[in-house]
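Lab notebook, page 48
Experiment: co-folding of the full assembly
Goal: obtain a model of how the components sit together before planning crosslinking
Operator: M.T.
Materials (sequences as entered):
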Amino acid sequence: MRRLLSGRNLAILAILLVITIGGRILFPIPLPTIQLPAEKIPGLSIFGFPITNTLIATLLADVTILVLVYFATRKMEMVPRGLQNVVEWVIEWFMNLAKDLAGEVSARKFLPIMMTIFLLVIVANWWELVPGFDSIGILEHPHSPNMRAYEIDEVGPIGILTPRLVQSDEQASGGEHSSGGEESGKGYVLVPFLRAATTDLNLTLALALVVMFWVQVSGVRALGLGYFKKFFDFRGVIPAIVGILELFSEVGKIISLTFRLFGNIFAGQVLIFVIPFLIPFLVVLPFYGLEVFVGFMQALVFAVLAMVFLGQAVVSHEGGHEEHKAEAGH
Amino acid sequence: MEKLGINGNFLIAQIINFLLLLFVLQRFLYKPVTKMLAARTKRVQESLAEADRVRQEAAAARAEYERQLEAERRRSFDAAQQAIQEGQKAREAIIAQAQKDAEDIRVRARDEAERERVQMLAQLRTQVADLAILASEKIISQALDRDVQRRLVNDFLTKTEALN
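Observation: model returned without errors.
Model output:
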């Protein structure tokens, strides 16, 4: 105890306290806009379709993966070195994991989709932690009165959000939200160029839909039309109800896959917004570490669940089969 | 849905993006890498088998070498043994020969000596007889004729011989 409270440690503690409290007072940070839908980048569209910042982040993740793949497989050697070694190790690790989850045949068949999900999600998740994500963008007047608008400091052509809040007229006049309409209010909000791709439900839902569609296709391929017996079983009341439950559970899988990934990463993002807003320095560091782990974990969970669902789909329901035969015998 | 940000266009864009990425990675990552892994596995198995084979060969060669060495050793041992035996035999033969020679020499020498003794004895007898006759003649001075003398002497000699 005495050693823990030595002069040096106390001094370090004091310095840390000064940094955190001083930071709070001297360098207050504005709270970025927190909203579920991805922001459309103003003035940027392709063929009339607006482009969101998560779409750009998705493309960035794609490019990152492709560059890694290019360098890893550029000169494949019998004795692997550097990046090739890492990539081979990762793929082999996933191959073994997939074999444990779904067996040899399914593992071989579904490894690409599992690996692609993992790579895309983990790269997208980890990009979120790179400085510049969510913090560089275009300053706009707020569209809705719920947004926190700030004053800006102009440094040449660059505007920097200050922590000075601008009260919108509607809020000041007692919350007549409808009167503001779509017209821009006072002050500015930041529309970042880049936002973690997995904080967009479109991405997570797209992955979930592809996986569950693939599950149905693989099931039909492996078992023929008999695959659908799992859902439409009219041999009795109970099997019929079970079939309906199975149908709902397929939908449930889509929803849970979609929102698990989205929710975890979005929550992490909010955490990383809010902590520096409360205490600008130091305190956010452990949360970055946590988010690195969460980013990996969610990518792994999505990939593993995809493999499990796919592996289950190609296995026929042995119990139901036997029951059917027994009935035919009578 | 709009509140959640789910939008048909973006959703389709994301699906297409994922499928494209899947296709590209399948083509340029999983296929080459799994092929490489399989090739390496095969190569390792082959080199292990090769190493095994070489080791077995080396062991066989060593066994063969040791077998030859052992045979050589045995052969030289046998040769030495044989040489020793032959030497022994030769030695015995030589010794036997020498003993035989020595025996021969001894026998010959004894015969010689015996013959000489007999010869000398005969000579001596004649001389003694002559001397005795001479002496007796001197003493008796021709009292007896020569034949009687000689008979007497011979008797004497025969007696002495019988005494001998």
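Interpretation: The mean pLDDT of chain B is 87.
Next step: discuss with group before ordering constructs.
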